[in-house]
């Protein structure tokens, strides 16, 4: 299970999603005039929190679907689409700030996409290996 490279990529994607609860995506002055306001997935931003939990849980769950690669691939693709939606929602939320800057830790959201893409490549590589070994039998 963990010797497969996509398991490591999925674990890293889940870890980045969990870490994103503690680090801000964007910092600035919001429309209420609160300076140093940080955009993090918390109770104030329920949709961000919910989507981040979904990405973290789906990444972890898909690690344990190593026996059914097609289901694992579908769940990772679903997770990737949810992450793209989450990233779009983050950018939409940054429009509600008067001034501010993206935090360096906003790279975590892009890293999740990269890790999910690498996991998809690993799953496809395993599928190709199985097809090639079945052809040789």
What does this structure look like?
The protein is mostly helical. It has a single domain, classed as Butyryl-CoA Dehydrogenase, subunit A, domain 3 (Up-down Bundle), CATH 1.20.140. The chain contains four helices and three strands. It has helices at residues 5-19, 46-63, 69-94, 107-136, and strands at residues 26-30, 37-39, 97-102. The protein has a three-stranded antiparallel β-sheet. The protein is elongated and about 70 Å long.
Q: What would you report as the Rg, rounded to the nearest angstrom?
A: 18 Å
Stretches with pLDDT under 50, minimum 5 residues: none
Derived from helix and strand composition plus strand pairing, the structural class reads mainly alpha
Distance between the termini: 24 Å
CATH architecture: Up-down Bundle
Q: What series of H and E elements makes up the topology?
A: HEEHHEH
| Distinct helical segment count | 4
Widest beta sheet: strand line-up: 2-1-3
Q: What is the 3D form?
A: elongated
CATH top level is Mainly Alpha
User: What does the average pLDDT come to?
Assistant: 89
What is the makeup of the main sheet? 3 strands, antiparallel
Number of separate strands: 3
Give a quick set of tags describing it.
single chain; 137 residues; mainly alpha; Butyryl-CoA Dehydrogenase, subunit A, domain 3; three-stranded antiparallel β-sheet; 10% strand
Fold topology:
Blueprint: H1 5-19, E1 26-30, E2 37-39, H2 46-63, H3 69-94, E3 97-102, H4 107-136
Antiparallel strand pairs: 1-2, 1-3
Helix pairs in contact: 1-2, 1-4, 2-3, 3-4
